[in-house]
Amino acid sequence: MAKTPIDKLLQPVHKFIHQEFTGGIVLFASVLIAILWANSPYAGSYHAVWDANLNISLAGTGLDAPLHIWINDGLMALFFFVIGLELKREFMAGELSSVKKATLPMVAALGGMIVPALIYAAFNVGHASASGWGIPMATDIAFALALLSLAGKHIPSSIKVFLSALAVADDLGAVMVIAFFYTVQISFLPLLLALALLLVLGLGNYLGVRSVIFYLVIGIIVWACFLMSGVHATIAGVLVALTIPARPKIDEEEYVTSLRENATTFEGAIRQDGALITFEQYHILERVKQLSLDAETPLQKIENALHPWVAFIIMPLFALANAGVHLDAGFFNAMGTTVSLGVVCGLVVGKGVGVFGFTWMMVRFRLAGLPAGAQWAHIFGVSLLAGVGFTMSLFITELAFSNAELIAQSKYGILVASLISGILGLFVLKTFVRTQTSKGW
Question: Which of 91, 255, 318, 357 could form a disulfide with 295 if both were Cys (CB 3.0 to 4.6 A apart)?
Fold first, then answer.
């Protein structure tokens, strides 16, 4: 097919967007911009922008909150919605779709949550900062996969699958932690309304409703109900995602057969002179379009449509609004606090020990096997990369603390820990993996 000038112009952009590591690159750039902005002569404008109030109202009822709250409670609900779609897809037909497939990454993720939380708790027991134990528990999948892609082509694809499944299971754990431990108070009336609407969405799925608008409109109302209930609104994103239909209306065999029949009919239709097609051919094309819609699942359609928005707008905006910490002489003093030490040791040591240790135990006791083609150095490198907990760690920080000083200490720890974990993980994967493979370990 001949490419138009606009196709040629946009091709590099499309290629960049669809690279696996580009989301991590854009996220890293956003973090860097936020830090530079917050430490520049224009630091006042940084805080002024994100603290500016935004009021959205309809029929006299509305929400009035600073811009960074809209991002954290609103746009991040969309981020969690995509996580929910990924979780459902993985549980239905992905790396978590069977007990055998899910066992190793889910147990590894469990170790990567328990050990960091215990390390943080050990540093902060008896302190006001003890509530931050959930901060070092989560892995930033965008950063981790971006760094893994930089490790080289000698990394087997099974390791990428293992890290992806690990991060997805990790996200599930983070969602549960937020729901059960970082919800302060509950207003039951809006929560009951939200649950009733979730049942409506589930019923719609059961009855075969496949309209995206149906799930979108009711999903927004569910989000608003959660926001008013006191349960963190991002949980609504995950729950709504679980109601999205994930099965096609027609199977592959029926689709291929119908497609061939329509293609034959289209080819045999009487053609007319010129570039235009006949009405008969037009109706055949419409049938083919409907067939294609019936053959795809709303879940994958929505996930594919939202992924670029989440990767290139929502997560970078979140990073810009939350990563702007002021680095001064107090930074080094803060790194000696129990919060920063707990976060750094939790992410760097806790993630490495937890993920690697639980994986080793599963393999040692023959409850699971290593991913195909993987060596122990691969697992150790990935365990270190799991310590890059940027996005979710920042998110939980905002839920765990209301004290600005504790928030700053946690953010310092997250930045340092993510940097250390990323460097160590890359070093192991680029250095020791080849050595181990050549020795046949």
Answer: 255
Helix (H) / strand (E) containing 65: strand 61-66
Residue 99: CB atoms within 10 Å: 8
Query: Sign (positive/negative) of CA torsion 188, 194, 200, 203?
Result: negative
Element housing 20 (H / E):
none
Question: For residues 242 and 86, what is the distance between their CA atoms, to the nearest angstrom?
Answer: 10
Half-sphere exposure of 22 (CA within 13 A, CB side): 16
> Using CA atoms, how far apart are residues 169 and 101, in angstroms rounded to an integer?
12
The token duo for 168 is: 């997805």
* Burial class (CB within 10 angstroms; exposed 0-12, middle 13-18, buried 19+) of 292: exposed
Tens digits of per-residue pLDDT, 221-262? 999 898 888 777 778 888 999 999 988 888 888 888 888 888
Give the containing element (helix H, strand E) for 386: none
Total residue count of the chain as it appears in this document: 441
Note the pLDDT tens digit of each residue in 181-200: 887 677 889 989 999 999 99
User: Exposed/middle/buried for 57, CB within 10 Å: 0-12, 13-18, 19+?
Assistant: exposed
